[in-house]
Design brief:
Layout (H helix, E strand, L loop, with lengths): L2 H8 L9 E4 L4 E3 L2 E9 L2 H11 L4 E7 L14 E9 L2 E9 L2 H14 L13 E5 L12 H18 L8 H4 L5 E2 L21 E3 L12 E3 L6 E4 L3 H11 L5 E4 L16
């Protein structure tokens, strides 16, 4: 194989059944129910299998333990970090991973370095997946399989796109049967009912539930090359909207039209 074929095979969509889901962050309460964000991930063995099948004996991994930084994660635990240096056919890619112990940090670094070669890159295209859980504790359990919840939402998304006559993306996300959801009732629009980007007209990420900074945008354009955002309505704007229509609408704005010191909403991948 020439190198173009090799890079293409490394970045090929993941096979069905290798993607798992884990909770990311603490549960939050919404309309009397607890929901938590789940993110898609793969095991390090899946990355090794891809490397061994495409470039057997032609890849090398070096891990470097990084100095411990002061500070703790959101659970109050100390973390450690590794830098992974992955070499494939003389091409080198590096990235840093963190974890609560050496094993998890080294695994995270390995997978992140592999993404730079395209392995499991599609995980970064997954939408946010909010699933109802049985409490607000650290070890709360989902009331439904996150993968199944995501798959149902994706099926509904495709059905709506067909009804609107829009082209349906037949990429790898649909092959692995995944999708986004916000379990339980919620006020305001959900993932598929968000407003269009005020700049490019495309779809937007709904960050209202996940953002940590209340001044961050409620919505952000999914196109990374577009800086369109929608900021939360100011108190006087909400009062005016309620007085005229009885409900408040989000304020439309572009990143270039607002204070640049405001931070973007949170959005995850891997």
């Amino acid at each position: 194989m020439d190198k173009m074929d090799i890079w293409s095979k490394l970045s090929a969509p993941l096979p069905s059944g290798v993607i798992s889901w884990r909770q990311d962050g603490k549960p939050v309460q919404r309309d009397g129910k607890f929901v938590a964000r789940f993110v898609a991930y793969i095991d390090a063995n899946t990355v090794r299998e891809r490397l061994d099948s495409v470039v057997p004996g032609e890849w090398d991994l070096t891990l470097e333990l990084l100095p411990t930084l002061s500070g703790q994660d959101e659970n109050g635990e100390q973390t450690c970090s590794f830098k992974a240096r992955l070499q494939i056919l003389g091409v080198i890619r590096e990235d840093v991973g963190t974890g609560r112990d050496y094993k998890s940090a080294a695994t995270d670094a390995f997978k992140r370095a592999a993404v730079r070669f395209g392995i499991a890159h599609e995980l970064y295209g997954f939408e946010q997946n909010w699933v109802q859980v049985d409490g607000d504790g650290r070890y709360a359990k989902p009331l439904d399989d996150p993968a199944a919840v995501y798959a149902r939402r994706q099926a509904r998304a495709e059905a709506r796109e067909r009804q609107r006559g829009e082209p349906v993306d037949d990429g790898s996300m649909h092959e692995v049967q995944v999708e986004t959801t916000l379990a339980g009732p919620a006020s305001g629009p959900l993932a598929l009912d968000e407003p269009s980007c005020p700049k490019c007209g495309g779809r937007m990420w709904d960050n209202r539930l996940s953002k940590r900074n209340p001044k961050a945008p409620d919505y952000k354009c999914r196109n990374r090359s577009c800086d369109g955002v929608i900021w939360p309505a100011k108190p006087n704007q909400r009062a005016s909207a309620n007085a005229t229509s009885g409900s408040a609408e989000p304020t439309l704005a572009l990143a270039s039209d607002v204070d640049t010191e405001r931070s973007d909403g949170d959005h995850v991948p891997f």
